[in-house]
Structures are given as structure tokens and as C-alpha cells.
Design goal:
The chain contains 19 helices and 22 strands. By secondary structure, it is an alpha/beta fold. The chain has a seven-stranded mixed sheet, sandwiched between helices. A five-stranded mixed sheet has the order 3-2-1-5-13.
Length: 559
Amino acid sequence: MKKYTVGIDFGTLSGRCLLTDVETGEEIATSVFEYPHQVMSDKLLDGTPLMIDWHLQHPQDYLDVLHFTIRDVMHQANISNKQVIGVGVDFTSCTMLPILKDGTPLCFLNEFKSVPNAYVKLWKHHSAQPWADKMTETAIRRGEKFIKRYGGKISSEWMFPKIWQTLEENPEVYEKADTFIEAADWIVMVLTGNLVRNTASAGAKACWHKKDGFPSKEYFKELDPRLENIIEEKFWGEVRSIGTRAGLLTQKAAELTGLLEGTPIATAHLDAHGATVGAKITEPGKMLIMMGTSSCHELMCSTEEMVPGICGYVEDGIVPGYYGYEAGQSCVGDHFAWFVENCLPASYKEEAKRQNKDIYSYLNILAAEKEVGETGLIALDWWNGNRSVLVDGNLSGMILGYTLLTKPEDIYRALIEATAFGTRKIVETFIEYHVPVDEIIIAGGIAEKNPFIMQIYADVTGRTIHIAGSKQNAALSSCIWAALAAGKENGGYDDIKEAADNMGNIKDVVYSPNWENKAAYDQLYKEYEVLHDYFGRGINPIMNNLKKRMNECRRNRKC
């Protein structure tokens, strides 16, 4: 009897479930569930307004993913739940929510349905920036060791700034919450009844260290006396390594999912951290870029290195036995979608339709006709802030060089180049601080569908670009971790390299640098670095000032 695992990738707009053959890695069935509530950025369901940089979600959407997609893939494959030997889960991060001890989200309670801080704060929720800044300032002033592991800055995307924001704005929510939890770990709690925090999320987003633990009580007390005992009171639970088993499926969860009670459930992981194995990456030197609405850059190293401006590193956070490093760009696919939805003339969409092409394919053709530098434009890709290496959610986008001759395809190409420059900045920073990057593998829909963008990345970085073989690389990786959680005795694996080699997938497609283009991009990159430092390192704080002014105007209008 064939054995299968289920991997569920909870993304920004949907949950994607994959059923995979454990022996061969063949992807048997896929099911996608679009979140009905999507991302709440302007208002809650009842009309309660939200300020700038609020991005919330409703946890019912995640439960619906479990209910609908798992049944769907088993139905498509016409298999019994007895053939599913394990389940793995990955999630965007830091995507967090306040819950009661039994796992009930606070936003499910009538008293908190109109309170934004009771909902899921999505990874790109950036309104906690003031608290992140205070955490950074205090850590530096106190000489806290942990701050060096995060490039010298705490991000507004992380756990404790978001919790502190809740305490400041809605202390009643903070008091009611028995704990604050990553959505990934909450899903595992729903499935197993166990509150298990995964090493990747705890280390990369909550300042945890395998040897040192969380920041000290003294540090939290100096931030706010009410936070002195936050770990014991609001952040309890075992931190468990990726690649372990979190527990077994409960009867209640079996009824929710259609799976067999007692099915092994893998400890959760970040969508990007755990996704290297889907592309057969289980060792240092190979960078995986998970490219979608944003990009996450994952890399392993045998040694512990302090790299300025990265999102942090976690021992055993990507593959057990190595230090896992993460960097990222907060706006990539979102970047291009913003342009198409808001700036593209109707005539372009009409012409693309006439040629029976999707709009991105049509723009690629036009933009590819330009030589490097011919657009006269250069851009900064900070439309949703900068995650690495500046770690500042208040930064914003910019395009320089407009003239009356500028065409939409020029802007589109400049935005692509900006994201490639941002990736090069990340790669070169890692290398400068002794974390080698020998090879780049890119996963995600853009890598699958857009050769034009992939070639620009190869030309800008000067590195060969490989493409992950699965359209659902994150979900495939979750299937692999599920097979490891199941163990060999249940038809799975005891070794992650063996599991990744058998179940992982990488395409034969390779994008090699065009060295003439590389030389031209080297010159443009110098200009990018000037703008990067001028606007991003405090020389000219105009972006932060404009963001403050925008928030004030919006606040006044909604008061």
C-alpha cells in the first residue's frame, strides 16, 4: 500500500495543500483555498477602521483550509486516510495571534470582535515600528548580546513589538490572552492539542537562542514594567526543533480534517526556513530565495556569524545541525502587481488581450527590448518597507529619472531591477561577513512563470540561477518534514538528506549571467547603493517624515 504525506503552505492570500508520494516525491494532488477574509488593511468586518500599516487576518480562514483542502486532495487521489502517514505545516511569519489556553483566538470572542489587536497580525503588519525602535534602542543601550544576532535592529514584523503594541493600545486584550502564538504553531496546536513553538519562528522572530533562551527579564522590565514576566506569563511553551514530531492528530482534529486520529504531525516551520529541502538543499553555501508577494532568502552555515541587517539566524532553524540565516525583501510580487493595477494604461491591457498574452508576458516583451540603463530609471524597492539590510518598515519606494519619454515598460523594468539590486545587496552582505553564497535557487510562481525576471537576477547578481522543481515548493517541503516526523517505522524517513533527495525536486532550467549585462549592471548598482544609503541610513530621513505625516492625516480624518 502506497504511503503519502500532506503538506500545507499557509500563504498571504491562500492556503495550499499538497499530497505527495513518500517514496518518489511525486505530487499526487493539490488543493488551494483562497482566504474569504483576505487581508484586512483598511477596516475590520464590522467597519472598524484601521490605521496605516495595519495588515490583519481572520483565523477562521486557516481552519477552513484544514477542513476543505485535505479532504479535497484525498478525494482527488482516491486514497484512504490510512495511507496518510504524516502532516507538515508551514506559514508566513511573524504572523501571530492572541489566544486562550484552549487555543481559542480572542477575535472569536464577542467582546473583541471590534478590537483590531485581537486579530491575527500578518507578517507585513508594520504599525508596531515605534515599539520595534524602542526595543532596538534599549538593547543597544544595555549592550544586550542578542541584538547582534539580528544585524543590530529589531523589526516591526517580529513578535515582541507586535505584543507590546497590543499591551499599549489594548491592555484588556493583553490581559485576556493566555499566550501569544505564531499562526504556524497555532495550527499545530489545533491539530495536536500541544502548544509547541518551532525553533525557526522563535529564533528568527522572537529573539530566542538555543543556548541563551529569550531576552532577560531585566531587558523586558526596562522596556515596560508590565513586560517583566512576559515569557512566563504570555509566551510559555516548549521550543522544539524543526524536523521533530509535535504530536499526534486528536479526535477533534480528525473530524475537522478527515484524517485518521493518531496521524503524526510535524513541528511547524516558517514557509521559507523549512522550504530548502523541497529544492534538495540540506547543506551550506546554497541560498534559497522564496519569491512571491515578498522574498525570503534562506542560507545555512556551519559557523555562527554576526551579519548586520539580516533578519537573524537560528541554530537548527533550517536544517538541524547548521545555523540557518534569513534575509528578505518585503515587496516583490506585490511590487509588480501594484504597478499593473495602479499605473498601467488601459491600452496596454487591451493590447495584451488582443495578442492573447497575460499582462506580465506582454510587459516582459516590451521591457526586454531595452538595453541595461536605457530606461534612464533607477528605483528602490521599499514599497512595503525594507526588511534587509536596513530593517526599517517606515521606508518607502522611489523611482528616479523620469522624463516625458518614460514609458510604462521602463518603469516595470526599473522595478524588477530594484528587487534584483536588493537581492544583490543581501548576498554581498552575507559574503562580507563570512557566510558563503555559492549558488542561488529560486522558488515560487515568479520563478516558474517569468524567465525575463530570472535572467535579470542572474545578470545583476553575477550568479547562476537554478529553479526549484515544484510549483508548490513550500508545501512540498512540508510534505518532506511530515515524512521525517512519521519516521521510517511508519513508512517515512529518519534522515532529512535521504528524505530531501528522494522527495525534493529541482528543474534542469538554468539562468547564467550575461557578462556584458553584468558589467553594465555593476555601474547601475553603484548608483543604487548611493540612493540606498542616502535614503535608508539616516542621511536624509524624508521617507520616514512623509510616512509620519501620512499617518497623522489619516488619523485626523478618521477621528
